[in-house]
Amino acid sequence: MQTLLLVDDEPNIVEGLASQFEGRYGGDVIVLKSFSGLHALSILQNNKVDVVLSDIRMPDMDGLTLQRETEVLWPHIHFVFLSGFDDFQFIHQASKSPLYHGYLLKMEGDEVVLNKIDQEIAQCAAEARAELEQGEMQRRYARMQGFLQRAALEGFVRGGGSWQQIQHSLPNLEMTLDPTRPVAMVLGKDTAAEATEHLQSLMLADNILAAQFPQLVFESLMPESGTFVWLLQGAAPENPPATNYLYAVFEALQQQLSDTANCPVSVVVGNAGPFENLAEQYSLLNRIYRMVDQSAGRLLIVDENTYADLLLGTGSASIQNQFQFSALLQQLDQLMRTGTADTVCTMMQTTFFDAAEPPQLDSEQQLLLFTLLLNVRREIFAEQLGEEPARDTACFDLFNAYLRSGAATQLEMLHRFTDLCAETCRQREENETHSTQAIIKRINRYIEDNVENYDLSLTALARMTGFNPSYLSRFYRINTGKKLSDQIDEAKLQHAKKLIAQGELVKNVAERTGFASPSAFILFFKRNTGVTPRQYFESENKS
Description:
Strand order of the largest sheet: 2-1-3-4-5
Distance between the termini: 52 Å
Oligomer: single chain
Largest sheet: 5 strands, parallel
Number of strands: 10
């Protein structure tokens, strides 16, 4: 599956082309939109894009600067420029970059643009296939020569001694990586049953990384059957790979493995850290994977930043003010609704029972914990029964027992509270955790809750669910009959209608529904309602 990014400071051009491309490609190509060069760069810093169709003259960052900035991130991306100016100076400058793949004039018409992008999309797919086939034997031989190094690294990652001890026992060991620089770790889990299939998946993944991302230096390991580890550094010491960038790299690699070789590999992307801490990092990423894995055969991709605090309890190690306690409530609320009994118990264990200085909760905070549990149970069981559930005797009985028992310690109460949270998760799992409709409901609820977020996108939804973005897009369309982008647009439209009817200024409505400019919002609103925001306000407020 390829990704196309459209960039122009004229919203009507972007929206018009996006509509045509989405109709042309269906769910086979992800179409991203941007109304400025700076915003497009932020998209490219966090997403693997195959083809960019960009205007040249834009106020904040022109297309040529965007191309130069992108070349550092994605050296194989295809850039096609679309401009209203027949400017050969721009053509000459743009053509110096290896990313340059053509220049079109807006006056040439949509059909010329559509056909050109068809060619680029097809060429990207062909290049991806060719890269898997080229040089495989040569790279396989190089990997055989590196067997000793991998064996040493795998033992070190599993906790088999210090790196200094390994260097002492193997003084002639040649390292591709620089142990004096920070190194990022990415954990992969291959669900294939056969050990030979694990090796094949790892070799294919290495081929893709070596061919498509020469700006990264890496070592690949298999410390356990079906478990892959990639240790990565930037080829340039001054450019260490950021976590968001590695997320985009491995999302693209994951999707290519799935599409071209039917190799489903789930991924946990870690942060860069000291080389000597790799054993601790390996343990952490494995624990994060166990926390989020639902064993449903889906492509998962998550990052350390999203889940490490939940796993380690660092976000709630000291509850001394309302903000920190609110963070604890939010974490518990999310795990109760989307996690498992084990993940809830893990969070409570690391936060309260294993901590050297466990948080001390006052009576008001304890009441809030019970209220949260009661509300979550009511919502969960109401969804299952299709009606308001009867009085929750289990939750009330626990709270009454706590109130009556003056001798009960806080830890005793929290142990019983944790047991009921875990029971609630198990009851929810039995009925809906793996059901398609439950997942769709969580996605739709997230869209509604984040409708004012400018970054609400397929990538954000994928990170929330732990799904691969391309997989999530297909999953949602197959099971709902509509595209995720349409669902997001519908939520934004309904929110905008509500704000406009209340008399909110168009500029403010545009900001609160995640649009880059009022003109982009007005175009969106009129295309979906047939009237301007002003006309809608007048029709809703007739005396």
